[in-house]
């Protein structure tokens, strides 16, 4: 998972001196803490997971966990912020040229593939928004709008070019993203259809949603 957005301490302060903990390095243990937290929160929900459980999952004493994160709220925010950062970085390398229809199809395939590789991160990022502080929620919402705006720009160009028939590009954007993200709740690699077929079906559904002419 691409869930690391914070810098982790690599040393312990013992007796006023910086000493490395035997068998534990910040650049290794920090990401393990986030990965364990992600698994547990996706499985049980944020409210039901304690810092003690997370520490036990990583093999740490409960008190040692606070060398890697100040509290559970910060840990949740770092998970969600890391997911959005990874999404936006991945989009920087995506194709942004071509007709509105080509760009729309590319967006659909990108969204499906990126999110199917990260089902736990997707689940936590959508279902645990309610557990963020107002300030952290606002930060995540701003990042999500950056991503959503990329699709809405494509839809607007398509409407201007006369190839899409969309009444409200904002609502259509949100509806398309929700539909595509929903794949993570039921898709299985060993399912009835291969991913390439599912992508084609979903691309057709999106074409219908935007009134491709």
TrEMBL record:
Domain of life: Bacteria
InterPro entries: Homeodomain-like_sf, HTH-type_TetR-like_transc_reg, HTH_TetR, KstR2_TetR_C, Tet_transcr_reg_TetR-rel_C_sf
UniProt domain HTH tetR-type: residue ranges: 27-87
Record carries keyword Nucleus: no
Keywords: DNA-binding, Transcription, Transcription regulation
Keyword Hydrolase: no
UniProt GO molecular function: DNA-binding transcription factor activity; transcription cis-regulatory region binding
Ranges of the DNA-binding region feature: 50-69
Pfam families linked to this entry: TetR_C_24, TetR_N
Record-given protein name: Transcriptional regulator
Organism: Octadecabacter antarcticus 307
């Amino acid at each position: 998972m691409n869930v690391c957005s914070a810098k982790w301490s690599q040393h312990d302060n013992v007796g006023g001196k910086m000493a490395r903990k035997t068998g534990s390095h910040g650049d290794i243990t920090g990401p393990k803490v986030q990965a364990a937290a992600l698994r547990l929160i996706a499985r049980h929900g944020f409210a039901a997971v304690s810092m003690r459980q997370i520490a036990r999952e990583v093999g740490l004493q409960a008190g040692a966990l606070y060398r890697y994160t100040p509290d559970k709220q910060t840990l949740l925010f770092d998970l969600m912020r890391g997911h959005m950062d990874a999404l936006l970085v991945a989009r920087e390398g995506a194709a942004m040229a071509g007709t509105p229809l080509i760009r729309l199809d590319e967006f659909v395939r990108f969204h499906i593939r990126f999110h199917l590789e990260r089902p736990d991160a997707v689940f936590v990022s959508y279902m645990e928004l309610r557990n963020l502080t107002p300030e952290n929620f606002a930060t995540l919402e701003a990042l999500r709008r950056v991503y959503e705006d990329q699709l809405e720009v494509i839809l607007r160009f398509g409407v201007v070019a006369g190839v899409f028939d969309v009444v409200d590009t904002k609502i259509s954007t949100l509806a398309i993203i929700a539909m595509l993200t929903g794949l993570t709740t039921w898709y299985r690699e060993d399912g009835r259809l291969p991913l390439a077929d599912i992508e084609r079906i979903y691309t057709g559904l999106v074409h219908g949603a935007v009134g491709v002419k």
